[in-house]
UniProtKB/TrEMBL annotation:
InterPro entries: AB_hydrolase_3, AB_hydrolase_fold, GDXG_lipolytic_enzyme. Residues 90-292 form the Alpha/beta hydrolase fold-3 domain. The keyword Metal-binding does not apply. This is Acetyl esterase/lipase. Keywords: Hydrolase. It comes from Amycolatopsis magusensis. It comes from the Bacteria. Pfam families: Abhydrolase_3.
Length: 319
């Protein structure tokens, strides 16, 4: 019997045009064998020292701090405002669990917010899969969070991340809750990678389309989990969608595009936070592909997607 793929939602018209250009500039499909080449391409887009100084708003240093038990030290990039920091954004970069670094281009989001709010930004250089499968990445994130709390814990701490970083940020929040760890003021999860099962309606709809489809998602999750991917033997600290209890977590901001693989798992996670008595602000942007506002920043829907983030931070911080 032939199975017909579900009809996908259309891309926003401006984003569809941008996607055509992006397809000529960067590969949108890859297998595990392509990881080294993708890492090299990603490294070419890392933020420079000048980017980190953000027009004189920050001074920065690169540190290694104690890592998890039986693990190596963890790299941290610490950007301090030139005036005293009122708190910190602890940032987890994206890259499908297999790419990226603490200088990843998506860190620019956090620098923009922090410059407005007088916060420090600490970006964690967690170990990458497949060389370092679960739990190495999330344990590195948690170790860096503990260091951050020790340095900036007198003020609010916001946990933030994009894509895989959004998933790791959500997992780190679960660890902080369950270990009685650092108190978090908020969690900002942008197009988060939450569910290893990769079988939602949006994952099926967007197969072969956009920037990060179900095939790429399978590469990322398999790198992290190996043969456990999609089985009952997956920890919620690897895939937060597997958590049975989402109560007691900090307020969340979640956004996602309607035309991307992660749409349904992001919506489900926000819904479950509400059902658990928590706070969540959810935005689903029509026609948005994965990472659209960073990859096509000039589009009107990208500007609309960026606009609510800083006001939400001001509200949860009382700033």
């Amino acid at each position: 019997m032939t199975t017909t793929a579900p009809t996908p939602p259309p891309f926003d018209a401006e984003l569809a045009a941008a996607l055509e250009v992006l397809r000529e500039q960067m590969p949108t499909r890859f297998a595990e064998v392509d990881i080294p080449a993708r890492r090299a391409e990603y490294a070419g887009r890392e933020l420079t020292d000048e980017d980190l100084r953000h027009g004189g708003d920050f001074e920065f240093e690169e540190l290694t701090v104690p890592g998890p038990a039986d693990g190596p030290e963890v790299r941290l990039l610490v950007c301090r405002p030139v005036r005293a920091a009122a708190g910190a954004i602890y940032y987890v970069h994206g890259g499908g669990m297999i790419l990226g670094s603490e200088r990843s281009p998506d860190l620019a989001y956090a620098l923009d917010w922090a410059a407005e709010l007088g916060l420090a930004v600490i970006s964690v250089g967690y170990r990458l899969a497949p060389e370092h499968p679960h739990p190495a990445p999330v344990e590195d994130c948690y170790a860096g969070l503990e260091w951050t709390a020790g340095q900036f814990g007198t003020g609010p701490i916001v946990l933030a991340g994009v894509s895989a970083g959004g998933g790791l940020a959500a997992a780190t929040a679960l660890l902080a809750r369950d270990r009685g760890g650092p108190e978090l003021t908020a969690q900002m999860l942008l197009c988060p990678m939450l569910d290893d099962r990769n079988d939602s309606a949006s994952a099926r709809q967007m197969t072969g389309l956009g920037i990060w489809d179900s095939a790429a998602n399978e590469v990322g999750w398999t790198a992290l989990l190996g043969d456990r991917r999609g089985t009952p033997d997956v920890s919620p600290y690897a895939a937060p969608a597997r958590a049975g209890d989402l109560s007691g977590l900090p307020p969340a901001f979640i956004d996602v595009g309607s035309a991307e693989t992660f749409r349904d798992e992001a919506v489900e996670y926000a819904t479950r936070l509400w059902q658990a008595g928590g706070q969540a602000e959810l935005h689903v942007w029509p026609g948005g592909f994965h990472g659209f506002d960073g990859l096509a920043p000039q589009a009107a829907v990208s500007a609309a997607a960026r606009a609510p983030r800083l006001p939400w931070l001001r509200r949860v911080l009382g700033a």
